[in-house]
Q: What sequence folds into this?
């Protein structure tokens, strides 16, 4: 029995040493990435940490600034092509949430409400003042919705690109929504802390679908940023707090008569939607529109013309 215990202790010690060595390897790899690449935009102080924001296009007096909010696990590169197109007719900003892309991590809870507050501070400190048209993809739609609810005087339009549906998530037991992140994100986050995803030669599309859709010359940097151990952990924490974020959005209520356009794709394999799915989006305001799009989750990559048309519509409503 004593030999068995000693053997177990020896194995655990060996694993701990290997994990520690992996953490050193990952830290050095990330440091090399920071030397190799540089932020496309500006680093701005937000609550004593640096956050990355990239804006393009001319500011036209009286015209709102378009704010792009990425989905779960994604950074501003997920808007790469669309931002270029929008910049042709409006001022447009994309950014990295705390801990994602080039932005430093935060210890504050990763709820949609907290992230919306950080975004507001970022925009103020970057002098990218409203009014805004908020555009959010997937989980980013939940953040954009919270921003519109908390800062109604600054928002003139909201566009949801296959957004997370807060009302739908709020119907599930919290414990059910806590299981999925552990398996899907928690384990990869733990492994990436020791650089194992990097060592395993994981490919860009395995991290996020949009990485495989980027122009070839942008993939290495975007992939390096997505591989950051902090980014994977932040994704895990955002997903773990999804029930809380959904409750925040539901409790915030509707958005009055704010113009809202929601582009949604079939949620089920048979092309159907959960019960009341469209109705929940329509109920966001008295001026909501829901368009069903026959494509995958990354609508802004597969059908960019539809997203651009909706943004242009919202950006010219005055």
A:
């Amino acid at each position: 029995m004593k030999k068995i215990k000693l053997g177990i202790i020896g194995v655990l010690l060996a694993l701990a040493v290997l994990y520690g060595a992996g953490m050193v390897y990952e830290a050095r790899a990330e440091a090399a990435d920071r030397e190799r690449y540089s932020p496309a935009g500006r680093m701005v102080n937000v609550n004593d940490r640096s956050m990355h924001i990239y804006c393009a296009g001319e500011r036209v007096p009286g015209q709102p600034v378009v704010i792009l909010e990425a989905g779960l696990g994604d950074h501003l590169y997920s808007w790469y092509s669309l931002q270029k197109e929008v910049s042709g007719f409006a001022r447009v900003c994309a950014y990295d949430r705390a801990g994602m892309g080039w932005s430093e991590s935060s210890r504050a809870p990763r709820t949609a409400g907290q992230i919306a507050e950080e975004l507001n501070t970022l925009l103020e400190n970057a002098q990218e003042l409203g009014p805004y048209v908020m555009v959010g993809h997937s989980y980013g739609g939940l953040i954009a919705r919270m921003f519109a609810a908390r800062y109604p005087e600054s928002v003139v339009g909201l566009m949801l690109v296959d957004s997370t549906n807060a009302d739908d998530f709020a119907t599930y037991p919290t414990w059910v929504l806590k299981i999925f992140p552990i398996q899907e994100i928690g384990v990869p986050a733990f492994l990436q802390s020791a650089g194992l995803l990097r060592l395993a030669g994981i490919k860009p599309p395995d991290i996020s679908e949009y990485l495989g859709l980027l122009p070839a010359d942008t993939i290495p940097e975007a992939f390096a940023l997505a591989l950051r151990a902090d980014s994977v952990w932040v994704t895990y924490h955002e997903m773990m707090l999804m029930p809380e974020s959904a409750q925040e959005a539901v409790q915030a209520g509707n958005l009055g008569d704010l113009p809202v356009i929601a582009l949604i794709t079939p949620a089920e394999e048979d092309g159907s939607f959960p019960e009341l799915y469209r109705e929940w989006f329509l109920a966001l305001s008295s001026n909501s529109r829901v368009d069903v799009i026959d494509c995958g989750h990354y609508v802004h990559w597969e059908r960019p013309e539809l997203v651009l048309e909706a943004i242009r519509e919202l950006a010219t409503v005055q």
